[in-house]
Amino acid sequence: MSEPAILAIETSCDETAAALVTERYAILSSVVSSQIDLHARFGGVVPEIAGRAHVELLEPVVSEALTAAGRSPTDPGIEAVAVTNGPGLVGSLLVGLSGAKAMAATWGVPLLGINHLEGHLFAAQLEVEPVEHPHVTLLVSGGHTMLIGVHGPGRYRLLGSTIDDAAGEAYDKVARYLGLGYPGGPAIDQLAHEGDPEAIHFPRAMAHDGLDFSFSGLKTAVIRYVQRTPDWVAADVAASFQAAVVDVLVTKAMRAVELFDARALVLGGGVAANSALRAAAALGAEEAGIRCALPSRSMCTDNAAMIAAAGWYRFRSGEASSWGLGAEPSLALELDGAP
Ligand code: KG4
Ligand code: ZN
Q1: Cβ(165) to ligand 1 under 6 A?
Q2: Separation of 221 CA from ligand 2 center, angstroms?
Q3: What is the pLDDT of residue 128?
Q4: Is residue 251 within 8 Å of 208, Cβ to Cβ?
Q5: What local confidence, expressed as pLDDT, does residue 176 receive?
Q6: Beta carbon of 88 within 6 Å of any ligand 1 atom
Q7: Which of 229, 230, 283, 332: CA 20 to 30 A from 294?
Q8: Is the CB of residue 86 below 6 angstroms from any atom belonging to ligand 1?
Q9: What is the pLDDT of residue 59?
Q10: What is the C-alpha separation between 57 and 53, in angstroms, rounded?
Q11: What is the pLDDT of residue 241?
């Protein structure tokens, strides 16, 4: 008999993803179909296009995940179907949710609604040694920038978050302004290698107070610099912008580690794929004498394996969602308020 697995589905934004993961977190398959080509010419994700693409891609992506894991649709050896039910684009979420319900009902297994953010928190557990608690996770994506104190699975405390733009949003907006295309993060990351991070000193907003972030002033500073500097050099702007983002993120993450008495620093979310952030976080953790847990780049950006990992935790806790589970575009991470 094949080892039981959870099938997870993720369609909250512009990636259609499915994965099969076993209870000991072996990834049997993880398929991610990106819609980047469909959205790139619009400079960002178009919700209607994303929803329609999920309708077309969900079935082939799930089939590919089952086949790659050596499972058949008639007898897949699935314990439960986990699906992202928020936060995200409502139309996109609904496609994954409807498919997941149909599959769970057909196979006679529980349905598990998973918070996308909790998925990102579990990504680091998939590929590395189990991360010790308490730890601090810096969750940086297109929609969120959060410092989360993790006491244990499901026990989260919000230590800080952005008061305006998310880190990924800042990358995407600056990249769009510089004409680097969408998504902006990888484009700036790459271009920054050719530039001087000290060429321009962009502001580090709120660097010295608290654990909250602000990125909209930085974006404005970049635009103003380019407008005022006739001979601006794109690579230097990219590298200097990135240096400002990384500096603030890592400074605050290390402050959070100290305040929370954390035993490890974990990175998650699409921006955690950034090479400068990864290097700076690893260095910060080394200096603090704690471990830095970095998921591989493909586990940082949206995928379904991380949803399966969170799904196993919820499944083991005896949870199951009702068939009436709805899409929750603004779903918040459930916090336990522990000190
Ligand atoms: O987690 P994710 O795939 O989707 C959301 O849940 O938002 O994150 C997407 C974000 C985008 O803003 C993208 O530009 C950014 O992550 N990103 C990066 C890199 N790769 C993706 N930002 C900086 N450097 C990267 N290498
Ligand atoms: Zn995400």
Answers
A1: no
A2: 27
A3: 74
A4: no
A5: 94
A6: no
A7: 332
A8: no
A9: 96
A10: 6
A11: 98
Instruction: Report which DSSP code applies to 321.
Output: B
- Quote the pLDDT of residue 48: 87
Neighbours of 42 (CB within 10 A): 10
Stretches where the chain sits below pLDDT 70 are 337-339
Residues 6 or more apart from 288 whose CB is under 8 A from it? Answer: 254, 257, 258, 265
Q: What is the pLDDT of residue 338?
A: 52
Q: Ligand 1 in contact with 89 (CB < 6 A)?
A: no
> Could you give the CA distance from residue 54 to residue 94 in angstroms, rounded to a whole number?
10
Cβ-Cβ contacts under 8 Å for 70 (sequence gap 6 or more): 2, 28
Question: CA angle at residue 240 from 214 to 268, to 5 degrees?
Answer: 55
Residue 41, token pair as written in the block: 């010419």
Distance 127 CA to ligand 2 centre (A): 18
- Which is it for strands 145-152 and 27-34: parallel, antiparallel or unpaired? unpaired
Indicate the helix (H) or strand (E) that contains 240: helix 234-260
Per-residue pLDDT at 337: 63
Measured from the Cα of 300, ligand 1's closest atom is: 1
Which of 117, 271, 296, 299 is the best mutation target for the ligand 1 pocket, counting ligand atoms within 8 Å of the beta carbon and taking the most?
A: 271
Minimum-distance ligand to the CA of 176? 1
Alpha-helical segments (H) within 69-165 = 90-107, 116-127
Say how many Å lie between the CA of residue 180 and the centre of ligand 1.
15
Question: Both tokens of residue 301?
Answer: 């950006």
Which stretches does DSSP call E strand in the chain? 5-10, 15-22, 27-34, 78-86, 111-115, 135-140, 145-152, 155-161, 264-268, 291-293
Round to whole Å and give the CA distance between 118 and 115.
Answer: 5
Predicted local confidence at residue 42, as pLDDT? 80
CA distance 338 to 149: 9
207 CA distance to ligand 1 centroid (A)? 22
d(CA 9, CA 305) in angstroms, rounded, equals 8
